[in-house]
């Protein structure tokens, strides 16, 4: 939630207007449906507003809606939330790709020849063996880079010296680092790569009792099967490279309508093709593929 400032003010105003519109539409629809003796719960405007917000943040609060019309109204807010989350992820992904180098050295050769820094890896670990196997076949100089004069970080008592006095330390598990910090074994300030900046397979969560969960799951699977999400991420990176010759911080601002528009267009593409029947099929006797 701390990255919601990624949205521009115009996007936030539009989201608020959408909330109000969907809330009033849902509330009026429920009154009309009850008038025609369709059993629907009596919900206040505030409850409808909470239901729309829950759909937007994909928490799936159950409003006990029975008719398809009312469920689709809440589903619209959920789809809007998915679209905006994908837009946010793509912008954060672009920002991450053009971050300045944070390593204390420019090249591996700088470590080997200047002998000022070392990469400390937990001894006898899979990470260390994997690096050794790769570098023995290529350079054979891993001893000048990995664990040069590093303390054995298998011993927690050496963790403070390893982290605070050497150029870089790689601990294999976040559980181990959490344990060291909790026990206050490491006394200097440390930094870590925040996992919130990384793209994950899921961009939404839903309550297990949310009735439209299966529909949304199939929706996302369809998008991934057509490569839409990955193509959007590549597209926004490639546009900046082609037009400007590189990515600068000014090119990667907040999420605006351009991002949401591209997402919306790609959302509708596979479903519009399905509705129009624009898929290839082989006709007997034509010797090739055609369109039906």
From TrEMBL:
Q: Which GO terms describe its cellular component?
A: membrane
Could you state a single Gene Ontology molecular function term? ligand-gated monoatomic ion channel activity
**Among its keywords, does the record have Membrane?**
yes
State the UniProt keywords alphabetically: Membrane, Transmembrane, Transmembrane helix
In this protein, which residues make up the domain named Ionotropic glutamate receptor C-terminal?
10-147
Extract the Gene3D superfamilies matched here: 1.10.287.70
Membrane-crossing residue ranges in chain numbering: 12-30, 42-61, 73-93
Q: Which InterPro entries match?
A: Iontro_rcpt_C
The reply to whether Transmembrane figures as a keyword in the UniProt entry is yes
Q: Which family does it belong to?
A: Belongs to the glutamate-gated ion channel (TC 1.A.10.1) family.
Protein name in UniProt: Ionotropic glutamate receptor C-terminal domain-containing protein
| Source organism of the structure | Acanthoscelides obtectus
